[in-house]
UniProtKB/TrEMBL annotation:
Protein species of origin: Escherichia coli
Fimbrial-type adhesion domain: residues covered: 4-124
Name of the protein in question: Fimbrial subunit YadM
Name of the gene encoding the protein in the UniProt record: yadM
Cellular component aspect of the GO annotation: pilus
Annotated coiled-coil segments of the chain: none
Gene3D superfamilies: Fimbrial-type adhesion domain (2.60.40.1090)
Superkingdom of origin organism: Bacteria
Gene Ontology biological process terms, A to Z: cell adhesion
Amino acid sequence: MDKIANKTAQSEANFKLVANGCSSGISWIDTTLTGNQSGSSPALIIPLASDTTSTTSYIGMGFKRKATSGDTFLKPNSTEYIRWSASEISTDGLEMIVALRETNAGQGVPGKFRALATFNFSYQ
């Protein structure tokens, strides 16, 4: 729990979204996010109240582009988006970070965490 509360690297994981099989004519890709948004920390996605397999409290997950500093997470269920660069589209992929964070500072309860985030893509 201390790693989440202190926002250490151990509370984060890197991953990559890759545009595979796309035509070479794509000029842009925008990525948005949907999920069960925290009321107290709207940039975080939390487990559904009906999901009894998730036993944490006051913990959420946030997603951001790896190059973004701090806790500037992509806000779910909003018009915010990440626009991919040309190299991210063609070869590199979009490097991302998912981080577990407390939704209310000092109130996080450890346990099993399970929440659903859906990435949505628009392109041209």
